[in-house]
Design goal:
The chain has eight helices and eleven strands. By secondary structure, the chain is of the alpha/beta class. The two termini are 20 Å apart. The model has no long low-confidence stretch (mean pLDDT 90).
Length: 266
Amino acid sequence: MNASSPFFKQLADADAVLVTVQSTRGSAPREVGAWMAVFSATTVGTVGGGRLELDAIAHARVLLQHGTGEPQLRYALGPSLGQCCGGEVVLHFERVDATDALRLGRQLAGALTPVALFGGGHVGRAVVQVLLTLPMDLTWIDSRDEIFPPDLPGHVRCEHSDPVQAAVADLVPQSRVLIMSFSHAEDLDIVAACLARQRERGDLPYIGLIGSKTKWASFRQRLQARGFAEAELAYVTCPIGVAGISDKRPEVIAVAVAAQILHVSG
């Protein structure tokens, strides 16, 4: 998580209580590791909403004001909270300040899914806008100068790479890769670089290529000519996006692609 995120911007000026889902049992609104930062008048993030979150905020603000209180609380998600999940959530409360920023950055970044997006065109820009709202750590790559918009938040890393496929070697392990450059030739080189890395390291769980079935049939022949076996080609998803959505507007494609990445990420 980048130091320019809303949490760290506020933490630079004011203390907070970090509320983290420590464990769950049965049905629960959020997973272990989900977090919320509670400041004196605002919050960042969520641990599930509803009465659970209201009670957690109230307890966090007592800790924030008085400096003492239970560091861990167990919540039964039943009638007493007005929630029908029926499970149980244990929340951990920790008072933090600006001196904790480096540690928290490493701790909270572990919950983000790394995504590498190749291509700064209309669809790429739409994908970025959707991914910005999701728990994903985004690297945006293009071979063209001055292609990235100037007003991106700091937690989006923009990288100029020429040749563009050279950036594949330095991707974060377990990156979900989206390939949608301005050129079919570039797309092919990026896919080949991803498959070569997958052959060597096996650490790219999703390689998504924008395009039609016809485009993939052509790419498949060219990749086979480069020595990639059928089993290796199976790592590539093309067309991208969840099935059943035929609308080709960039915004719709972006939502379908984001949903597919979330599905892959489990």
